[in-house]
Amino acid sequence: MSVVDTDLIDAIGLEKEAQRVFLSIIDSLVWDGENVHLYALQEKINTYLYFIESGELDKALPDGKGFDVVIELILKHIPSDEAISFFDKTTQILLDKGIVFVFGPDKNSGYAEQQS
């Protein structure tokens, strides 16, 4: 699954000790000048938001009921300036709903452009 599968949840994880549920979006797309990538990502985030707000998350992962929810965007490529601006706005919108939004590279290897 990936960001282009806008109607699917890519991955769900539970961190019991920290009482957090992670919903991960796997994004391997290169950033484009037409913002097609951003539109797909926006649709994907809307799917995740519906999954949370509709109660589907609690049904799918009852052990995480009442835990903090984090939407984690795992990027392969360094985001464009437009993407960063979108992430900043998205962070605030989701925080207002009690949802944390984080984004970045694979924690071990970084962005594809940083690979040697």
Short synopsis of the structure:
By secondary structure, this protein is of the alpha/beta class. Helix content is 34%, strand content 23%. The protein contains 3 helices and 4 strands, in the order ββααβαβ.
Distance between the termini: 26 Å
The chain-level mean pLDDT equals: 90
Say how many strands there are: 4
Proportion of strand residues: 15-25%
Total count of helical runs of at least 4 residues: 3
Which residue ranges are poorly predicted, with pLDDT under 50 across at least 5 consecutive positions?
none
Class by SSE composition: alpha/beta
User: Strand order across the biggest sheet?
Assistant: 1-2-3-4
What fraction, in percent, of the residue positions are helical? 25-40%
Largest sheet: 4 strands, mixed
Q: Could you say which overall geometry the principal axes of the C-alpha atoms support? A: globular
Number of domains: 1
Secondary-structure element sequence? EEHHEHE
Compute the CA-based radius of gyration.
14 Å
